[in-house]
Structures are given as structure tokens and as C-alpha cells.
Amino acid sequence: MNGKFRLVVQYPLKSAKGSQRDNWLRDKVMEYLDLSLTEANLGCVDGFDMGKYISDPKKYALNIFCIITEEDRSIALVKRVLRDSRLDYTRIKIATMPYGKDETYTLKFSYKKGVTDFSL
Description:
Blueprint: E1 5-13, H1 20-39, E2 43-52, E3 60-68, H2 71-84, E4 93-98, E5 106-110
Helix pairs in contact: 1-2
């Protein structure tokens, strides 16, 4: 497979704008992931959004988007970086979809066992 993928790391939030800690977390996660993905030649961070879930406007999330080349290696790297850097690894969901295609994200990792669905 020669294609790229979109990867999203999602953190639950308590409000649409997040707290000061949520903003700090966003900045650190983006910094660490961009550096790690770039050094490993696997991709880069492509932005973020914070706010309501599209599927449930009563819930809020921080989504950090990346463009990656190797799905399995990139997911493993993201998990390791967040765990080793103590960036709230126990609260994340990771999902991917093929780059350039208008599909839905597929959940690849969840901090909660038994979770099978993912939405932005």
C-alpha cells in the first residue's frame, strides 16, 4: 500500500474550549508527536480542533490530526510517545482513515476496553 493515512488522537474534554491544562496538553502533544513522527520519517501533525462532538453535541473533545505513511508503525509510535511523555495516555482514542478519501475514521486504539465506535 503506497497511500497515506489520516490519524487522529482524541481526548475527552469537559467543556468546548477546554481548560488551561487542556490547552497545555494540546500544545505538548502536538509538539512531541510532530517531532517524533518527523524524526521517524512517518509523517507530521496536521492541526487540531476542540469542541463538540459532531455525533453528540453534549460531549466535547480535543482532536489532534496527523498525516502518516505507515499506519501500524505510526500508531505504535504515537502510543509510545504519549505513554512515555505522560501526556494523558490513559484517556486517548486513536483512529485512522485513508488520506484523500471521504470515509469514516476506524478506531484503532481506545483507553477503555470494549469501545468499538469512534466519531469526531
